[in-house]
Amino acid sequence: MRYGDFMNRCKWCNLKNELYVEYHDREWGIPNFDDDYLFEMLILESFQAGLSWECVLNKRKSFELAYDRFDLEKVCTYDDNKINELLENEDIIRNKLKIKASINNAKIFRSIKNEYGTFYNYLKVFTDGKTFYEIGKVTSNLSDLISSDLQRRGMKFVGSTIIYSYLQAIGIIYSHEKDCFMYKSC
Q1: What is the DSSP letter of 174?
Q2: Is residue 24 a contact partner of residue 8, using CB atoms and an 8 Å limit?
Q3: Cross-strand bridge partners of residue 174
Q4: Is the CA virtual torsion 17, 88, 97, 81 positive or negative?
Q5: Contacts of 84 (CB under 8 A, 6+ apart)
Q6: Distance spanning both ends of the chain, measured CA to CA
Q7: What is the pLDDT of residues 122-144, one digit of tens each?
Q8: Which of 34, 18, 10 has the alpha carbon at shortest distance from 174?
Q9: Active-site residue numbers?
Q10: Is the pTM of this model over 0.90?
Q11: Tens digits of per-residue pLDDT, 110-126?
Q12: For 83-97, what is each residue's pLDDT tens digit?
């Protein structure tokens, strides 16, 4: 018997994938507002566009290695040689538009961080520091607003659905289902 085999989880959690179960149980929806984590999750979520989160999660360690452990300053310096290296890396998602967007988004993330002190301070402009308890949604007014502002600033692959997933991942939107052992209401 593996850790937590007896517990009910959100329906989307693939119980056959230990990485997914661990992510569900120990990370998803748990507030983590450290800038390094916020940057990593923004990069990973942007690669999810058109794919499943499970696909991205399965490649997370490879992304971590390919993206210099998500070191913001290093990613901001990536050039054409690094882009080509990433495009040749079979262990990550090799989408040229997403790779280029990740570098562009890193520069904008850094700019926002410089403007607000932390990326979380930027997010608090929209959230007032609150946690939102919602189940069964893929977008909201909050994700619409943040997505729109990030796009206005020049970010790519940050549509409302991606930003909603991002907000769930980092714990601003809490969406564990009522049958899930992690469920709690406001």
Answers
A1: E
A2: no
A3: 133
A4: positive
A5: none
A6: 33
A7: 999 999 999 999 999 999 999 99
A8: 10
A9: 23, 45, 53
A10: yes
A11: 999 999 999 999 999 99
A12: 999 999 999 999 999
Rounded Cα–Cα distance for residues 75 and 106 (Å): 7
Token pair 């794919």 is at which residue? 51
The partner residues of 173 in beta bridges, in order of sequence, read 132
- b or e along 41-80 (b: 16 or more beta carbons within 10 Å of the residue's beta carbon)? bbbbbbbbbeeebbebbebeeebeebbeebebeebbebee
Are 46 and 98 spatial neighbours (Cβ–Cβ below 8 Å)?
yes
- Find out whether 176 and 29 touch, Cβ atoms under 8 Å: yes
What element of type H or E holds 132? strand 132-133
Report the percent of the chain where pLDDT is more than 90. Answer: 94
Beta-bridge partners for 132: 173
Neighbour-count burial for 146-184, b at 16+ CB within 10 Å, e otherwise? bbebbeeeebbbbbbbbbbbbbbbbebbbbbeeebebbe
Containing 56, the helix (H) or strand (E) segment is helix 53-58
CB atoms inside a 10 Å sphere around CB 7 = 13
